[in-house]
Design a protein that fits this description.
- This protein is 39% helix and 18% strand.
- It is an alpha/beta fold.
- It has two domains: 142 residues, 3-Layer(aba) Sandwich (Rossmann fold); 61 residues, no CATH class.
- A seven-stranded mixed β-sheet has the order 2-1-3-4-5-8-9.
Length: 226
């Protein structure tokens, strides 16, 4: 596996976590390198990766670098069996810009509209009616946050912040955003992220198994065989 990331806090943390998990799973990390924020020319980085020929490339990215890396991977004929990004791969604009070049690429997201969560259809229809576009996970998380806070207020019977917090720490609930449960420090313990893959111009959830809408297309064929 090769791991690359923008040299900023979130993406650096994601890369470190990826390396640790890969090693726990018995995978060999053969390359790991960060690039500066705002970087646009990934040719030197990708040339080094091509030389070690990893089966998997995991890229901790934002939108712009996810798109640029994908384009330059094709230009340099870098052909891993699996390529995934963090931020960017889940957005419709990713496919709008890359078209067929986005096929087979994996992305991670907090939420997808096709997930079988309670209240999902109501949220999707209401959002599209109001804003005339598809929601992304930021919209769904905001919607769920309001529902969860309202439930906390209802159970507390007051708007007193400490009493509402006490209820939120005990609350377990499912919304259109998925499961909600936190530990005593307020960190999520129940919500699941999902892995998606672009297949025939559509996002298909491929992990975790209980939320998957399809199977991953693996391995990814070489650029000249697509």
């Amino acid at each position: 596996m090769a791991i690359i990331n923008e040299d900023t806090l979130f993406t650096k943390s994601a890369a470190i976590g990826t390396a640790e998990l890969a090693k726990k799973q018995g995978m060999q990390v053969v390359f790991q390198e960060a690039y500066p924020k705002g970087h646009t020319d990934f040719s030197a980085l990708l040339t080094k990766i091509k030389a070690v020929n990893p089966d998997v490339i995991a890229a901790a990215t934002y939108f712009d670098d996810a798109v640029a890396i994908t384009r330059q991977m094709k230009e340099l004929n870098v052909n891993p069996k699996m390529f995934g990004v963090t931020v960017g791969g889940d957005l419709p604009e990713f496919y709008d810009l890359l078209k067929q070049n986005a096929e087979y690429i994996y992305g991670a997201t907090q939420w997808e509209g096709a997930l079988p969560y309670p209240g999902q259809r109501e949220f999707l229809e209401g959002y599209k009616r109001k804003f005339n576009r598809e929601p992304v996970y930021h919209s769904a998380s905001g919607y769920a946050g309001c529902l969860i806070y309202a439930e906390g207020v209802k159970r507390a019977g007051t708007l007193d912040a400490d009493k509402v917090r006490e209820q939120l720490l005990k609350l377990e609930i499912k919304t259109a955003f998925g499961e909600y449960k936190v530990d005593q420090d307020g960190f999520q313990t129940a919500h699941k992220m999902v892995i998606l893959q672009w297949q025939d111009g559509k996002k298909v959830t491929v992990w975790p198994d209980e939320l998957a809408s399809g199977k991953a297309r693996f391995p990814t064929p070489a650029w000249n065989q697509r």
